[in-house]
Specification:
- The structure holds 2 protein chains of 2 kinds.
- By secondary structure, chain A is mostly beta strands.
- Chain A has a single domain (about 5-430), classed as Porin, CATH 2.40.160.10.
- Chain A has 4 helices and 20 strands.
- In chain A, the strands form 3 sheets. A 16-stranded antiparallel β-barrel of chain A has the order 1-2-3-4-5-8-9-12-13-14-15-16-17-18-19-20.
- Chain B contains 1 helix and 16 strands.
- Chain B is globular.
- Chain B has one helix spanning about 5-10; strands at about 25-35, 45-50, 65-70, 70-75, 75-80, 85-90, 95-100, 105-110, 120, 125-130, 140-145, 150, 160-165, 165-175, 185-190, 195-205.
- In chain B, strand 3 and strand 4 (about 70-75) form a beta hairpin.
- A 5-stranded mixed β-sheet of chain B has the order 5-11-10-7-8. Chain B has a 4-stranded antiparallel β-sheet with strand order 12-2-14-15. A 4-stranded mixed β-sheet of chain B has the order 4-3-6-9, with no helix packed on it.
- Chain B folds into 2 domains: about 5-55 and about 150-205, Immunoglobulin-like, CATH 2.60.40.10; about 65-145, Immunoglobulin-like, CATH 2.60.40.420.
- The longest helix of chain B has 4 residues, at about 5-10.
- The termini of chain B are far apart.
- The chains are: A mainly beta, B mainly beta.
- The interface of A and B includes residues 121, 263, 265 and 431 of A.
């Protein structure tokens, strides 16, 4: 990627790597399937990626859908990356109240170190078989079935699906969330509701760039680059979007219902509405995007070692003022995506395969149908724990898409990309 | 079939067998527990109550403990004689907040990392599901038993109970995933003097619920 990493981020990464390297040799042991947890988690993600295709969208003006690319030609370009490093502090304040503060440095992040998540969590003892979990602060809504842990890491692959890549980059909130769960007979039910702000620009990247598959995450203060927009939008919209900002003080909400019937299956329904004012904007030309979506998730364990995971999303986003004879707002976009992920545990590791499709459809008065996008991707991945604090991943990703708006830059509207990536995940937990 | 209160017939051992009394002309009962498909049911609990005569009280023998290690309870199912104390031992580097709100025993224990020797007295028979308020996926069961004949099945679904008196007995199989009222099935068996009898139970099992995960 083109943007240079800031020096503080480099120092943080190097420091973490040195510590992690010491763990590798000092405490070899059996890697556990469940990540260790503790007062402090330190981690570093190192990758070697060979990619063809266009420059990553994370570079200004790039249109590629992964974190990697080769703008010099169609051949695979091999490069090492220190993709991410972070610290997760999880203090306890008594026995029912705890906190989580996660700081992160990512390759391509415009702030050296930024806040990933920060929240307090209240978990009183269950009452009459009903458990209550409350979170307040900055966090991701529980949509992704591919991420886990205090650092919100992808569990079985290196690259999450397009759905969860978007959740990671544009659907992070500041708010209060309450989750109730209970057993009714052999059925486990949980109901989650939240009120939130700080997510008014959600939908910006999805409209101008379209879907993408990457493990870059939104942080509290960072901006993310947008691709080249049409002439009208270049005057109205900043060239970068800040995913965590509140422009109108409207309180958004989301709700989730999860049902685990007897047996190896769990089904989830999630609805999100940020209630942003599509006419709100600030001096930096960040706009309110009224974004809503419905999401379905399912997990099915075929046996003790084989799991199918599926997610599907269908939503809309609206931005700008009414314009033209029919009074249509500047942007009115519908987006959809779905994936199926199969994971088979093999010894201490796993192999996974994922297929997914995605699309956007535009009916706005400024962003028109040439910004529509259709695409699909497949991913094959392997996870292999090397030792207690080190896990090796290998992944192949192929993604194809068509978007006529690429003609504006003289590019082929059809785009395809291959990425082969080997990743080392170093992680240690300290303190009780 | 003789009707037996489920809370008095469910039992298992924490460390081996709940010690049976010595009996003249004692008989042994060999029990095999298999699921409908033929697979053995490890940790299935087998308990015996006498019919037509009082079942002796179990004797307290040894110590009873439930360990927390690798963010799990060990063992998954434990049998504890009524009146015994159970020691909860945290071997993890993280703390655990163990609780149960069962009718047989309501309690909570706050176990700091690697802290041991917190004990709870269980003075009423019944099933005591255990949870951890910090780690949702930690689940285990204590069966507080009022019979000396109680044992959990080995990996092959096999239980051998010794020292039974002659006569009719109620043999109960219990497992949290057994698909039956009270998660148990009871059968009356006649025991002859100084005999070795084998009984095979084929029980319907449901797939365990999915790991509820960490919550967040």
């Amino acid at each position: 990627m083109g943007r240079n990493s800031p020096s503080i981020a480099t120092l943080l990464r190097n420091g973490l790597l040195a510590v992690s390297g010491a763990w590798l040799f000092a405490s070899p042991g059996q890697a556990a399937n469940t990540p260790e947890t503790g007062l402090l988690i330190a981690y570093a993600n190192l990758d070697v990626a060979a990619a063809d295709g266009p420059r990553s969208w994370l570079n200004h003006g790039g249109t590629g859908k992964s974190r990697f690319g080769n703008p010099d030609g169609d051949a695979l370009r091999l490069r090492p990356y220190a993709s991410e490093a972070g610290l997760v502090l999880q203090p306890d304040f008594g026995w029912s109240l705890s906190g989580l503060v996660s700081v992160i440095a990512q390759h391509g992040q415009d702030k050296a170190v930024d806040i990933n998540e920060a929240f307090v969590r209240w978990r009183p003892l269950p009452v009459a078989n009903v458990r209550l979990n409350v979170r307040a602060g900055i966090f991701w809504p529980a949509v992704s079935l591919e991420h886990s842990g205090g650092e919100w890491a992808v569990s079985e692959t290196l690259t999450p699906s397009a759905i969860n890549s978007w959740i990671g980059e544009e659907v992070k909130v500041g708010g209060v969330e309450a989750a109730f769960s209970t057993m009714i007979g052999e059925h486990r039910l949980s109901l989650t509701a939240a009120g939130f702000g700080l997510n008014d620009t959600s939908g910006t990247l999805l409209t101008f760039r379209g879907w993408a598959t990457h493990d870059y995450k939104a942080t509290l203060f960072s901006y993310q680059p947008l691709p080249v927009m049409n002439t009208f939008m270049r005057r109205a919209q900043a060239r970068e979007t800040r995913p965590m900002i509140d422009l109108d003080h409207h309180v958004g909400w989301y709700g989730k219902l999860a049902w685990a019937p007897p047996g190896p299956i769990e089904l989830q329904y999630f609805h999100y509405d940020n209630r942003a004012d599509p006419e709100a904007f600030n001096a930096g030309y960040q706009w309110g995007w009224r974004t809503r979506f419905d999401h379905l998730g399912a997990i099915l364990d075929l046996d003790t070692r084989t799991r199918l995971t599926a997610q599907a999303i269908d939503g809309t986003t609206i931005m700008g003022f009414p314009r033209g004879a029919d009074g249509q707002r500047w942007v009115k976009m519908r987006y959809r995506s779905a994936f199926l992920l199969a994971t088979r545990q093999v010894a201490q590791g796993s192999v996974s395969g994922r297929v997914e499709g995605f699309s956007t459809r535009n009916h706005g008065s400024v962003v028109l149908s040439d910004d529509n996008e259709t695409g699909w991707a497949w991913t094959g991945a392997m996870r292999w724990p090397l030792m207690r604090h080190a896990t090796l991943f290998a992944e192949a990703l192929h993604i194809e898409s068509r978007r006529d708006a690429r003609l504006r830059e003289g590019l082929d509207p059809r785009q395809h990309q291959n990425v082969v990536r080997v990743g080392l995940r170093l992680r240690g937990a300290f303190g009780g | 079939m003789h009707r037996v209160d489920i809370w008095t017939v469910v039992a298992c051992t924490a460390l081996g067998v709940v010690t049976p009394p010595a009996a003249a002309s004692a008989a042994d009962l060999d029990v095999q527990v298999r699921a409908t498909g033929g697979a053995p049911v490890p940790e299935a609990l087998v308990t015996i109550h006498l019919i037509g005569q009082p079942t002796p009280r179990p004797r307290l023998a040894g110590t009873y403990s439930v360990d927390q290690q690798d963010i799990q309870f060990h063992p998954f199912i434990s049998a504890v004689p009524v009146g015994a104390s159970v020691t909860f031992m945290n071997h993890d580097r993280v703390r655990h907040h163990v609780y149960s709100f069962s009718p047989a025993k309501r309690f909570e224990l706050k176990l700091a990392s690697r802290q041991q020797n917190q004990s709870v007295l269980f003075d009423k028979p019944g099933i005591v599901p255990l949870g951890c308020n910090i780690h949702d996926r930690m689940i285990a069961y204590l069966a507080i038993v009022d019979t000396p004949w109680a044992k959990t099945a080995d990996a092959g679904g096999h239980v051998l109970l010794r020292g039974l008196p002659a006569g009719s007995v109620a043999v109960t199989i219990w497992h949290p995933y057994l698909r039956a009222p009270g998660n148990s099935i009871t059968r009356t068996v006649t025991i002859a003097d100084s005999s070795m009898r084998s009984e095979r139970f084929t029980v319907p099992m449901r797939t365990p619920p999915r790991d509820p995960g960490s919550g967040y």
